Amino acid sequence: xxxxxxxxxxxxxxxxxxxxxxxxxxxxxxxxxxxxxxxxxxxxxxxxxxxxxxxxxxxxxxxxxxxxxxxxxxxxxxxxxxxxxxxxxxxxxxxxxxxxxxxxxxxxxxxxxxxxxxxxxxxxxxxxxxxxxxxxxxxxxxxxxxxxxxxxxxxxxxxxxxxxxxxxxxxxxxxxxxxxxxxxxxxxxxxxxxxxxxxxxxxxxxxxxxxxxxxxxxxxxxxxxxxxxxxxxxxxxxxxxxxxxxxxxxxxxxxxxxxxxxxxxxxxxxxxxxxxxxxxxxxxxxxxxxxxxxxxxxxxxxxxxxxxxxxxxxxxxxxxxxxxxxxxxxxxxxxxxxxxxxxxxxxxxxxxxxxxxxxxxxxxxxxxxxxxxxxxxxxxxxxxxxxxxxxxxxxxxxxxxxxxxxxxxxxxxxxxxxxxxxxxxxxxxxxxxxxxxxxxxxxxxxxxxxxxxxxxxxxxxxxxxxxxxxxxxxxxxxxxxxxxxxxxxxxxxxxxxxxxxxxxxxxxxxxxxxxxxxxxxxxxxxxxxxxxxxxxxxxxxxxxxxxxxxxxxxxxxxxxxxxxxxxxxxxxxxxxxxxxxxxxxxxxxxxxxxxxxxxxxxxxxxxxxxxxxxxxxxxxxxxxxxxxxxxxxxxxxxxxxxxxxxxxxxxxxxxxxxxxxxxxxxxxxxxxxxxxxxxxxxxxxxxxxxxxxxxxxxxxxxxxxxxxxxxxxxxxxxxxxxxxxxxxxxxxxxxxx
Length: 737
Ligand SMILES: Cc1cc2nc3c(=O)[nH]c(=O)nc-3n(C[C@H](O)[C@H](O)[C@H](O)COP(=O)(O)OP(=O)(O)OC[C@H]3O[C@@H](n4cnc5c(N)ncnc54)[C@H](O)[C@@H]3O)c2cc1C
Prior knowledge:
The chain is α/β, with parallel strands linked by helices. Helices cover 55% and strands 8% of the residues. The protein has helices at 18-24, 31-53, 64-76, 96-107, 111-130, 133-143, 284-320, 333-337, 343-387, 392-411, 421-424, 426-461, 476-488, 493-503, 507-526, 532-551, 566-596, 600-603, 606-638, 647-651, 656-665, 697-709, 713-726; strands at 157-160, 178-183, 191-197, 201-202, 209-216, 224-230, 234-238, 253-254, 257-263, 271-274, 277-280, 654-655, 676-677. The strands form four sheets. Strands 1, 2, 3, 5, 6, 7 and 9 form a seven-stranded mixed β-sheet that branches. It has a two-stranded antiparallel sheet with strand order 4-8. A two-stranded antiparallel sheet has the order 10-11. α9 (343-387) runs antiparallel to α12. It starts with 17 loop residues before the first helix and ends in an 11-residue tail after the last helix. 49% of the residues are buried. The structure holds flavin-adenine dinucleotide. Flavin-adenine dinucleotide (FAD) is lined by residues 119, 159-162, 169-171, 200-202, 245, 248, 253, 485, 488-494, 566.
């Protein structure tokens, strides 16, 4: 039974507290993660902030001051997050949310510091995901910080995929790095020679080991693989010159050269020998696929942190902008509100804040999905072993069957008892969650960093000239530039769009997506101010458009939805990102509303906070719906050829003599006709007769509906703006400028 919202007419009192964030981002029940957040924050707002403030970013070199940050990370437990307790790590179980929170806290102050920490995990990730048990034991132990009383420095790693032009970049298949056998004594392990040059490799200034992608240069090695290189290996381990980057200067980046001899046991995941040929268990693509699908989420988190971190400095700047001037006396609007007396300044800040909320919600949702997926993947490996399912094809067959089953179950009505299998049947559960992860990860990377970089520019602009100075509180100018790197590394936008254009058409994902439409309407029914209804209509429009494009051809008869047609698939992927981000934001605010009341520390300001957050959802949903509308309209109509005033075009028009005849029978008919061709052949002065597109009628209806769904969104923005003008903020930022 629907109930009317019971939120009090309260307003936002303070910036969201940790308790609120813990509920929103799903770690209210994880005391270990809450402690990790606190210890990471102390490093971020302490040593990291001080280093940035004292000009640490002004050098490309890896300096002793920057190196001290690594020790600070060790001391705070950050380095230990990725490793298991038995290897010296902090806690067991999946680490995606934990790493996302670390990234969030560090990137709140400096993206480079966050990257320096995360790049170590990226180096370990191939070993973690696909390494042999021996490799995992060795490198995880080495990478863990020393235990009390242990005189040992943790090993740092770098992940080396990208190569000097013209080789690996976006196209990760164009490998120039080579591996060949230089010694293979009977009964002994083969010795390999690895030649690899890297480009833009993070952590290279200090890494003790490297996970590097290489291709076979020897007919006795099949295909490509990832190998582990160590600093002490015999041969060339040249860290190269530091990259003169304009971003993330607190991390070390350079173009290394390796020419090293290593035992074959360093092939990640191991190998088998068949007829004298080494066959790596995983080729390099299989390894990086498993790695990036997790690590890209944390990159998306970083840009979200930047946007949210900009809110407080902007409010402070706006409020105090005119203080000290003769005309701005205490109590006057100019003194109290400063720039916040201006609607545009507030509205733009609302947009920045709403984007930050949506992107954080999306990235943390993705991290949580991977935390759920990790143990399932392990169970799946066991299941394959139990059933004797080996080889890619057999696994694919099993998963296809599970996917069909998952689609059927997802589409059952909510109360159908058979639906329980969605949670209890391993295969089905895996298929559903995997398809979701396949969308959420690239969406978080693509939208958060790409759109986030655009919105960081907005944030910077709100600080006026100050925004682009080194003195800007919150280092907003740095963050703007840094956001562009986040959009680029671990695969730039094209890579994420390419992936989404495939994963978003997975029937299992689409079945869940259809469910989201009802879910959003349900939420909107209970809590009308979220914008959920508009989002549901926009989702329907996106779904209709995908279906339409998959069946349609352009004016020249070429198929529209196909991988080569990036002009079709990529924008549709962008549109989906807006939807998943806004949905995640709504779900997080709903959780805050539902669980917040049980938290005594939140109780007092909860109503105002939820009201404000709900208004931000409405603003964001409206914006997202508008983007979907724009993109879909262009795609649905843009590939048709506009009629012209030629013979074919004229055939679809009224002719004046016809009209005159009808006018005799139906007086006034003339008034309804447009695109009329006169008896001398003349016609209205425009590009051609107006387009008729009968098969798009449902689309027109959706557009009209969507336009009406924007109702109230600007009122929500006004309310959010007013709330921001009244919010209390601390006297000063808690980290230096
Ligand atoms: C500071 C920094 C740190 C880095 N750290 C690491 C690291 O630790 N390890 C590592 O291996 N790499 C690292 N990189 C490399 C980074 O991952 C690559 O720069 C990135 O993947 C893009 O490759 P590229 O520069 O060769 O761009 P390109 O491949 O040349 O792409 C250029 C442009 O063309 C577009 N494009 C390319 N191919 C396509 C396509 N098929 N379809 C459509 N558009 C396309 C791209 O989207 C992009 O806009 C780092 C880079 C930087 C700058």
